[in-house]
Amino acid sequence: MVSLSAYLLVAAALFCTGVYGVLARRNAIAILMAIELMLNAVNITLVAFWRYLHPAATTGQAFALFVLVVAAAEAAAGLALIISTYRNRETVDVENIDLLKG
Amino acid sequence: METQGTLLPLLVALIPWPPFIAFGLIALVANRWKRLSHTLAILSVAISFVLSQVVFWAAIRTEHLGEHPIAARIVWLPVGARPLEFGVLVDPLGAVMLFMVPLVSLMIFIYSVGYMAGDPHYSRFFALLSLFEAAMLLLVVADNLLMLFIGWEVMGFCSYALIGFWFRKPSAYRAAVKAFMTTRVGDVVMLLGIAYLYAQTGTLNFHDILRNPETLKALAETPSYVAGLSVAALASLLLFAGTVGKSAQFPLHVWLPDAMEGPTPVSAMIHAATMVSAGVYTTIRMFPLLQAGQHGLGGEAAFWVVALIGAFTAFMAATMGMAQNDIKRVLAYSTISQLGYMLAAVGIGAYVAAAFHLITHAFFKALLFLGSGSVIHAVEHGHHPAGSHKGHGEPFDPNDMFNMGGLSRRMPVTFWTFLAGGLSLAGFPLITAGFWSKDEILGEAFRGAFEKGEVLPLLVFLLLATAALLTGFYTMRQIALTFLGEPRTAAAAHAEESPGAMIFPLVFLAFFALLGGFVGVPEGFPVLSGLVGRNWFHAFVGGTLLEHPEALPFHPAPVLLSSAIALAGLFLGWWVYGRRPLAAGAPDPLARLGPVYTFLKNRWYIDDLYHLLFVRPTLWLAERAVALFMDRVVIDGLLHGIADAVWSMGAALRLFDRVVVNGIGDGIGEAVKAAGRELRALQTGLVQNYLLVVVLGILGFIVLYTVAPMLIGF
Amino acid sequence: MTLLQGMFLLFALLTLGAGLMTVLSRHLFHAVLYLILSLVGVAGLFVLLEAEFLAGVQVLIYIGAISILIIFAVMLTRGMARNPGPPLNNQSLAAAVIAGLFFLLLAPVLAGFPWPQAAPPVPGDAIEALGRSLVDPVQFALPFELASVMILAALVGAIFIAREKR
Known about the structure:
Distance between the termini of chain B: 50 Å
Number of strands of chain C: 0
Helix content of chain B: over 70%
Number of strands of chain B: 2
Strand content of chain B: under 5%
Oligomer: heterotrimer
Order of helices and strands of chain C: HHHHHHH
Largest sheet of chain B: 2 strands, antiparallel
Shape of chain C: globular
Distance between the termini of chain C: 63 Å
Radius of gyration of chain C: 20 Å
């Protein structure tokens, strides 16, 4: 039998991988992919908790589904933004997108 | 309780929504179409009105509504062990407010269609008015202080926006800022009171605090360590400060007369039916808290404060109202005065009388404001055809009563309805609503003063009786100057009766201003009591309280006295102004009082005093102090420049100035600049850089909450 | 080592390895392929957790739809794909340290907590119950509807933003 903490550790590792990707990649699409990894880590956690603590309740799976929906919406909107930016500035390198600079 | 189920609370919860939705629709969608805007606004208030009526009639059929109010609540924010709950509550006090507020508002909305016709910002007006209405209804149905405060503040904003509605007029936006800033003083203290109450009881729900004898007892017996007051007394005084601001009581009354710069329907709405009564409503609502403090520590101190502020304001505002020429300002001062009446009533424990006067006042004061609006509207329109050529050079004030006169023939409906409202305000015996409610307040004070022999009711009675006399006087002065005699200007001579949309609300409100008082005829009153039955209002509203207050039995002395006072005031006004109508350009007969008149006309110089005490020093400190200081240093240096010692002192001062003062001044500036230059590097504009810091912060929190406790050993 | 444990190890390594390659690979297109592999691993973990429905959804939506969307985006920004430059920015070292620290902080908490060892059995009608709860007014009907409105808004917004403007 695999223990709950094993799943949680896998999820945590995947999440940290995603965090690293978000912080370190230059390409906006790569950052988006790293975010997808983080969302998946969350889903693993949700499903694992559901399985080990409350398999009779539907909440865990339902939340995972909602995360999925949010991920889909986020991907659609995010990629649209990236394409629009690329069209205007010929780049998707976030280091070149620094309009926030003070 | 069992029969009402969940439908009624749901209806109650729906009441504030239609105007709010109308606000959104008008502001976002309908703002280009005037007709659509006012249709939406009126329709929304009409829906609220119907819902309120359903709730009201259901409420008065419920037995023991006080113990089992129409209420429901939901957990809104589960924060820790004390969730923040939102809910609705209709107890007898709330029910009568629900009867009054949408009814009067609906009339004002209909009236506005006529009054605001042709204004370039017509839709904005209706949007703001709808938002205002939604906030007021929220305040009335709220079952806790937090929701009440939300409605309270939204109204504060709306009143700011509406008073300054004609923002191109400098006096209008100044009045708006003044209203906002002045009420803010009270609101901040009130928020303190709410927080204090929450900290002490853990709930803000009215029912949980005010109908729970143990909570009240605990609050009354806990010392607050401030001026020897109990927690209950201190909390109610803090909350009362909010009322002082909102209901324009001394010393925060200065904003209300200036607020007359707004359009007249706004005055009727804010200063008669809703916002200012919301202040009194809150104090009435929190009365059990005030009462609980009575037997606890600090005794009756809180009662004294409330009663004396109320009574003094009633008296002071009445004297100020005598010497005003602006038709709306007279009404403004009478509003302040009448609100003082209500608070004085609360302060002597006459809970029901205060609520009663609140309701009747809303009707007749809305009527008076709308009537004055009708007059202003007519005179303004009369001015344009009359003075199209010569009128441009000289300023013409359509609000000035000395520019009117003789309007009773030109606009009969406005005259008769205004007369009804005025008589009700003055408390004309038997046939006006104002008589019954005012009589109840005076009766309670009279009984406290002469039957129980207490000092506070005696003081209150004397002040209120004097104010009643003055009320009769200035009301008659206003009616005589506006409607009687001959027109004093061409504008008044050409005035036309207002359109139907403005006339209908006047007639409707006049009905309530005259007959609304019969719900509260004292028991045992000769003839009438037999006709209209027992004192229904007292029996109903009294049920809000834990201990049912005893109804005041009929006593001929105060009734005769207050009738005599009202009639005397009215007669005095007629004798001075109505007997021989003023000719055009004639001075005010009151001016013969000399300095007293000047004192009253300048509103006791309180505005000037505030200007001197608060506004001027602020400006002075901000702009002049530094410059003046420098001047004095330089001049002194020149005067005593001959003596070497002084020379050196001057030099030293100059050195001090250059090195220390300039050094500090420049140094601060340079330091800020340098810090800005250095810190600028932090703003890389790179999102990932910011995110890095965010994740670092999260790490910090994890360390704080998981690792650190382990290390310390928890 | 039982078969279950072996499967878990396989899928966990697949997920993590492919995930790592996703954030590290120089070519964007490779990164997408690794992402798909990692998502397959997650789907496998779902199967091991007896959430077969979610595993299916994962394959359909993530691998079938979202990944394709990302591939399209990669294609449309082809100029970037041709001369990719350095994949990492100059704070990558700090990012690695922080991400590692994050894991080191999480791991002892997750591993050290006394979780229940044996999992209760999954009821046979779990998927049916899930479906019912999604349309049950007192459970997730409102969030469900909100989610559908949100995704519609996201689609409309995406089309509006990415549209060719003239």
